[in-house]
Amino acid sequence: MLARSTPAAIAIQVRGLSDRAIAWLFITPAIALLLAINIFPLIWAVYLSFTNFRANRPNAEVEGVGLRNYQRVLNDPDIWIAMQTTAHFVFWTILLQTAIGFALAYLIDRKFRGHAFWTTVILIPMMLSPAVVGNFWRFLYQPQIGLFNYIVSFFSGIAPSSFEMLGSVTLAPWAIIIVDTWMWTPYVMLICLAGLRSIPDYIYEAAEVDRASAWRQFWSITVPMALPFIMLAVLFRGIENFKMFDMVMLLTGGGPGSTTEVASITLKREAFESWLTGRSSAFAIILFVAVFGLANVYVKALNKVKQR
Amino acid sequence: MSSVNTTAHSVVEPTATSKRIAGAIVILYALVTMVPLAWIFLTSIKSPPDSISYPPKIVFTPTLEGYCNLFTTRTRQTPDYIQSLPPPTGTCDEITRSRNMVIAGPSNYWPRFGNSLLIAFGSTFLAVSLGTLAAYGFSRFRVPLADDLLFFILSTRMMPPIAVAIPIYLMYRQLGLSDTALGMILLYTAVNVSLAVWLLKGFIDEIPREYEEAAMIDGYTRLQAFWKVVLPQATTGIAATAIFCLIFAWNEYAFAVLLTSGSAQTAPPFIPTIIGEGGQDWPAVAAGTTIFLVPILVFTIILRKQLLRGITFGAVRK
């Protein structure tokens, strides 16, 4: 048996721990931690979603309630409104970030002088804490004294005290969309830039030879070749904004009324203010399944685009 | 918004004019996005009245009051009492007295900042260590169901943090880990380790196995080969992964605000709670924000190349 193995294989078998032992030794700690702090709580949440347990009454009798929590969540109009609000945010933030991000990537790809430096400057907002920076945006949005209102009135002539970005039902969602776009456009830009850089020059050169106009080249080479990357950026941003919490919590707390109450805020209220642990767990599971399902469908579409 | 030049010029080598226009637009965008950050810094060196004046002041006398208010707690006193005190011991003491107050003691800012440091670096170290080992295991040995396992682990990140926070909160209450640095370190490690394994597996896959095999023929055990051959080759990837984990842990808010309240509270939940007399003390908030952002700013500028791969989930290999 040994005679037919390579020298390396013999060496491995003869000395030290066996490969199998090392594989176990190396993989186990990470998996154990994940099981304890990722998977186990998930299973616990699933269990809790079938009970009437309340975290603020740990000693009360816990009863199984079957699917009642799920029924209540799905029949609760507030939950559907929160889902709509979330979808609204996801749609607008992705649209704006993709449009601006791709345009910026396209311009940076012209490789003007100093493009590397300015790319770094543009990246800065996305490195910062959404909570800490979002909190400061509250100050920028103050009516009368806030810089944002001042700049808007400077260019438009509307009195700076006449509109409240965070206090108005129509403007509050946009206040959040603006901050999110300011923070995350660089991220989309970065992925688009990688996509543009992945297009080999010879394709453009061939198009030049064929006398294709720049416009034509843009629509039939640049956009299709960069599309998988754009879609990837949309996926990451979509998942992230589905979970949107920090910024909304600090800017509006879900207000005014419940105009900016996204899914995560509803979840927090149910779980940590109303202490309806069972119901909030059911909602959490529904959210997870929804995102997981949508993401999987989307990834299939993405792979189709890639294979073209 | 797209600026496609309809004149027939080469896309491969844009004309000087189109480069200049592109540059101008990008620079303009960059400057506009910097305005809020510049304003954070400017507000941190304004006096409270200057910070809320209308129109917003760009020219003002800088003061350290925001930083003084950030680092101290103060009590209001009568002018007569303040007159009777010995001469002020420093700039902050002087500024505080001029507002008819005296310094009562240090604020919670530095302890919270220290928690952020401890938890961010602790969890990063753990996530990268465990992640490197597991990534090597997945990369070099046939592990049953490895891909499914990895994908499932990664998909747990699709859960809103609040959803995970409910059972974690209950679990930590049972184990006595709520509001402890250890609890937060373990939690952030768990959140980061899946990504760390994913990224690092990509890096380790690129290191040819022949290196280890050659080393083993030369008499190394597999562990020695891993330690002396693979690790040095993987340093760039490990650094990129570490930065990514560090930024996440440094910036995280949702878990921190739900699972810590005092002794283990990090800076992000603390900064929004800085209040002066009559609402939020914006210069102090800005000062706290400035100090908190500086490390990340320095990081971004120095390590932007390594960041590229981490941010894009290993999708960008350039």
UniProtKB/TrEMBL annotation, chain B:
Q: Does the keyword Transit peptide apply?
A: no
Protein's membrane topology:
Multi-pass membrane protein
**Where does the secretion signal sit in this chain?**
none
Its annotated compartments are: Cell membrane
Top-level division of the source organism's lineage: Bacteria
**ABC transmembrane type-1 domain mapped to chain residues:** 113-303
What keywords were assigned to this record? Cell membrane, Membrane, Transmembrane, Transmembrane helix, Transport
Chain segments annotated as transmembrane: 21-42, 117-138, 150-172, 184-204, 225-250, 282-303
The record's annotation in Gene3D superfamilies points to:
MetI-like
For this chain, the family text in UniProt reads: Belongs to the binding-protein-dependent transport system permease family.
Q: What protein name applies here?
A: Carbohydrate ABC transporter permease
The organism is Sinorhizobium numidicum
